[in-house]
Amino acid sequence: MPRQNESLFSRLFFLPQVLKFYYGSVIWRSNKPRLVRYGLACVVALFALYIKLFIDIFIPIQTTPFLFTILPVIGITWYGGIGAAIVGLLFTAITTRYYFMNPMYSLSLADDYGLVRLSLYLIEGGVSIWLTDLTQMFRYTSTIRLQKLKDSEEGFNLLTNTAPVLIWITNCEDTFLYMNKKWTDSVGMSLADISHYKVVDFIHTNDKSRYIECVSEAYKKNKSYRIQYRLKIKNKYRWVLHNGVPLPGLYENMQGYLNAAVSIDKEKELDEKKSRFISVTSHELKTPLTTIKAFSQLLEKQYEKLSPQERQYYLSKVIKQVNKLAVFVDGLLDLSRIERGRFIIQKELFAMDEVITEVANDIRLTVVTHAIIIKKNAKIQIYADRYKISQVLYNLLDNAIKFSPLAKKVVIASYSNDNKLVVEVTDLGVGILQKSKRSIFELFEQIEPQKKMFYRGLGIGLYISKEIIDKHGGQIGIKRSTPRGSTFYFTLPLNKNK
User: Fold this and answer.
1) Are 438 and 448 in contact (CB under 8 A)?
2) What is the dihedral of CA 266, 268, 269, 270, to 10 degrees?
3) Which of 20, 81, 256, 431 could make a disulfide contact with 29, Cβ separation 3.0–4.6 Å?
4) How much is the pTM?
5) The pLDDT value given to residue 209
6) Shared domain check, 286 and 187
7) Strand-pair category, 409-416 with 371-377
8) 189, 233 contact by CB (below 8 A)
9) In this structure, are 302 and 356 located in the same domain?
10) What b/e sequence results for 223-238 when a residue is b if at least 16 CB atoms lie within 10 Å of its CB, and e otherwise?
11) Does 195 share its domain with 309?
């Protein structure tokens, strides 16, 4: 079958290609000096004449006057090109006519038989020159094409091996034909080792059927495709976004696919965190609202029957849930302000020991499972946002209580160190896994305890706390974490100008 884009004219007539090759020959041989090319043609022709004269001494060659003549012409064509070959052809024709054809030592063309032989020699020589030169052109252009192909392959390898994505080529059976360095590094195998594998062999079991269905459909219709799946990279399954583009074959049918895949593991993880955030948010809103609704309806229907103490009790429950809801909504608003770059700090001068005492007392009113102990409370004036620093301390105490369900106390300490105020919150809980320590202050991240226990939360409290402390020029982190408890801390500069 012909190529898809090949015209009828180009298949039937190859004269344009011949002229193109000849032009390339002229350009190539123009690098050689003209004197050398034409001078060499005369020298070779004279040498051929000398050989023939020498042979003629022993064996008369008048019957075959053009013996050993066409070979030098071909050699001149090979080196000097058509112009030099024509000079060599004419030179050999004249000398042959003069020395070896009757009447000898004459340039007369009166002999019809000699004229025919001479004409045939010129025609034969011209055809030989053309064929030889054309052969040389094909050889020259093939060399150029091979070099260009080599350069193109090196450029392709350089481009794909420096790309930060997985790039590979597969045939119609989805077997590897090529893969870039990132691929071989990811799987720890060379192309030779992986050539008998298929892409599907590296895909997560739960995603294989979906991948096979997508690729099979694309192969049938010879079209591009895009799919997301989990790919085994460095012995761990990671989400990737895979794009496949069909490669045209030699004829109408395609010969394979050029594929590229980029990791979307972080995007998938973020989507999961957002989904969990929405789920937990719904729960956190529904719980206090349900409680508020239940106690409000009870007060409405049984108000006259309830004693003043019972009314006060139910109202305190409602107020507690309203306060909880207000704190929750404030956290969402703070998150929104942070994301929009509108998180504002309003600093004032206040006593930090008073803030610690206030927050501890507020928590004591709502928490009966833990004792809030202030071990050390330095009387220090700081210049900061009082409300937001209270919010940070509340978040740390809330987490300390949440992650120490079997403990009976949480300890607060504050002191000055190196012109900084240090506040520490220590619990006797389950501790935090090492891998969680690096990302615990990121958005939507939730503390993963060392013991397998379930804790519901939004994953925004520590993120907001870090933003608040960063705005104040301080630091927040984990001082220690063991299976017997953790200590969180934050620092604030004592210089009020900061």
Assistant:
1) no
2) 90
3) 81
4) 0.49
5) 92
6) no
7) parallel
8) no
9) no
10) eebebbbbbebeeebb
11) no
